[in-house]
Write a structure and sequence with these properties.
About 20% of the residues lie in helices and about 30% in strands. By secondary structure, it is an alpha+beta fold. A six-stranded mixed β-sheet has the order 3-4-5-6-8-7, covered by helices on one side. Strands 1-2 form a two-stranded antiparallel sheet. The longest helix has 21 residues, at about 60-80.
Length: about 200
């Protein structure tokens, strides 16, 4: 079937469902509404916050500002500035939060009603979403990619992190995957299912 795409700020949203770009004022993010005829609309924001730094660094302050931009746009959404139909839309923000400094970006999003969802690998043992794939990368694996969502509108219905290197041969066969598919990136794929409340 047809795949609908929206690219902005180096981020993307793809779906087989109708997709409407939302003109939000965001840095290094893409925002779009996925419309379904049988339920409320879903706002998806794909993020790639500034990399690196430490608590209080210039990079950390940039991440804080990026989260503040999103929080402001969600307030505008709830206030009807993007149309009355979207005031009670579901909201999911997914991507590379790069939280290697402070947790302030996450606290800012929590202040507008979003909650962090913990996803585990299919083996149910791991939660890291990034791992160095080059020998010269000396950082420990970490949880850099997150999913946050509005829990008053949505409830989790399933989800996992996909690391093909940890799957059995049978699982790889059943899923039509190859063992090295996850090696295409140093970030793992996040899969998160939600239902409207």
């Amino acid at each position: 079937g047809k795949l609908n795409l929206h690219w902005s700020g180096g981020c993307a949203i793809a779906t087989s469902l109708p997709l409407v770009h939302i003109p939000m004022k965001l840095d290094r993010c893409a925002a779009a509404v996925i419309e379904r005829p049988d339920t409320r609309p879903l706002l998806v924001i794909s993020v790639h916050f500034k990399c690196c730094g430490f608590n209080g660094s210039r990079e950390d302050i940039t991440r804080i500002n990026q989260a503040a931009q999103i929080a402001n746009e969600i307030r505008r959404l709830r206030d009807g500035e993007f149309g009355k139909k979207l005031t009670d839309a579901g909201v999911v923000i997914i991507g590379d939060y790069n939280l290697v400094g402070s947790r302030m970006p996450l606290e800012i999003l929590k202040a507008v009603g979003l909650t962090d969802r913990m996803l585990l690998g299919m083996d149910k043992q791991t939660a890291f979403t990034w791992r160095g794939i080059k020998k010269e990368e000396s950082f420990w694996p970490g949880r850099l990619d997150l999913v946050t969502y509005d829990q008053t509108v949505l409830r989790p219905a399933g989800g996992f992190l996909l690391d093909t290197n940890s799957l059995s041969k049978k699982s790889l066969r059943d899923l039509l995957l190859l063992v090295h598919d996850s090696s295409a990136s140093d970030h793992l794929m996040l899969v998160a299912d939600f239902q409207f409340r």
